[in-house]
């Protein structure tokens, strides 16, 4: 859709990062909250957002989750307790911390799961949030999707230590490095972290080592990575790895895979058709959904 000119600006793809997003979100209950990133559209869908409404939002249509106002980089969905993408790198941390503090004060029994990238982990807000959530034992699961690059800069060029999760010990919280291309490994780590948060023991930092197969955005020519490096990671595509695992356990057959692929294509085509055929927001609605309704005049 972006290459057909339907997206105003660029879009950030999460191809190659599906296991980190699916595994983490499958550990959540419907009442839990999600703070996504500009690249976690798969997580939005797993949390319950309708793919058609998500596509409509990305291309700025009135039927989108936010009425076409948010686009890809700010999308939120109150109906699924998706608190929305923060357009500023590092803003995820105070937003997620505040949401988790609210859950603790309300004694809601809900957990907040917040995604962030390796690049965001070098922001000052990261350290502030780790400290406060640990100090106050807030019910939050931090998930770093380390795809090796902050835009065009390798993580090892910007971090003095090899793992984001190694920083967790400084705040007296568990830190776990998992294979971000192994959906079951991510799911298991997220389940343990969620249970810990619900028990009142505070946050956990999970780092998913993975790789984005495409550039930083659809405008990125991707000249800073070698084709050999990309090919090596593509061979460990998380969807293919999970398919091979299920085949080895006799849970999948060629016929079943074909049916799943057909169902997925039909669902995708239906979502795209819904989005493309949806109207653009009316100019008169420009101020709607901007301010929270209030009795204060």
Description:
- The protein has helices at residues 18-25, 41-47, 51-58, 92-106, 124-135, 183-198, 227-234, 238-248, 254-277; strands spanning 33-35, 112-117, 140-146, 149-150, 153-154, 175-179, 204-209.
- With 297 residues, the protein is α/β, with parallel strands linked by helices.
- It has one domain: 3-Layer(aba) Sandwich (Rossmann fold), CATH 3.40.50.
- The strands form two sheets. A five-stranded parallel β-sheet has the order 1-2-3-7-6, sandwiched between helices. A two-stranded antiparallel sheet has the order 4-5.
- Helix 1 runs parallel beside helix 2, helix 1 (18-25) packs parallel to helix 6 (183-198) and helix 4 (92-106) runs parallel beside helix 5.
- The longest helix is centred in the C-terminal third of the chain and has 24 residues, at 254-277.
- It is globular, with a radius of gyration of 19 Å.
Q: Can you summarize this structure?
A:
With 297 residues, the chain is an alpha/beta fold.
Query: What is the helix/strand order?
Result: HEHHHEHEEEEHEHHH
What is the CATH class?
Alpha Beta
Strand tally is 7
Beta-strand content estimate: 5-15%
Domain count: the total is 1
The pLDDT mean sits at 93
Shape: globular
Terminal Cα separation, in Å?
A: 42 Å
Spell out the CATH superfamily: Thiamin diphosphate (ThDP)-binding fold, Pyr/PP domains
Structural Rg: 19 Å
